[in-house]
Amino acid sequence: MTTSSILGTGAYAPKKLLTNQDLEKMIATTDQWITERTGIKTRHIAAEGETTSDMAVCAARAALAMAETRAEDLDMIIVGTISADMPLPSCAVIIQAKLGARNAFAFDLSAACAGSLYGMSIADQFIRTGKARRVLVIGAELLSRLIDWNDRNTCILFGDGAGAIVMGPCEEPGRGLLSTHLHTDGTTADFLKIPGGGSLHPQSEEVLANKWHKVAMNGREIYKFAIRVLPLALNEALEANGLKPENVSHVIAHQANARIVESVLERVGIPQDKCWMNLDRYGNTSSASLPISLDEANRAGRLQKGDIIAMMAIGAGMAWGSALMRW
Question: 24 FRET partner, CA 20 to 30 A, in 133, 176, 179, 209?
Fold first, then answer.
């Protein structure tokens, strides 16, 4: 059976850095407080005039170059984002035009921090069924414009960036994306949301006054939920493929909080040093987090042929999942 594999990866982060020391001058917080609770030291902030699609195109071009794939050879573009350039049309169609990927159909998906993992799962189905041979999956977020910079519960966490993956068929038995496992629990939707700007609370003076157009988060509930469901998702992927935690070579994870990643790996029984961590340098880049981490690990030579790569992500919804790949 044809499986899908990763042919190329790419990433982009804006040049401007916002450090914990910078935040100390903006809100009532300290570098020590942020570091101890999140593991974050710096985050990248988009330049004035820079858009989500701009960042996505930079990451995409790097991934296409590695995959030795021309933009016009793409069949499909999937963009995971909750911070598109505009509500309509999708960010994906803007990216398609900027890349010159005239033969690809393109669409956005909204799974927040799990967006890239959801996108990979969709791409995998199209490749396995022969409906597509070259798929570009992008996670891109410009969250600095959706944050209330007076809310220290959220503004310390998020950064801007983009990651991209080019996927295609793999004919070699036992290699490629082995399985993906996606889950949703809509009863937890209030944990992480932007309540204003939609049909429930259309844009208005009231929305702006109450800052309903900004991210609102219950960090404590998210933490408790994440460390409960992510171990189950990782074990689900391992069991589906007849593997055990000791068989995992590397973990590529969405990184929202260092304590979440550490707790999940401890519960599954995977050593911490098997997980590529860059949260300290990027903060939480939502859907961009997983592909940025994958690209860094890939370009560092960390991933070798035959390695078992476990992936996990969780985002607003709550939406979460896992994947297992033989590199």
Answer: 209
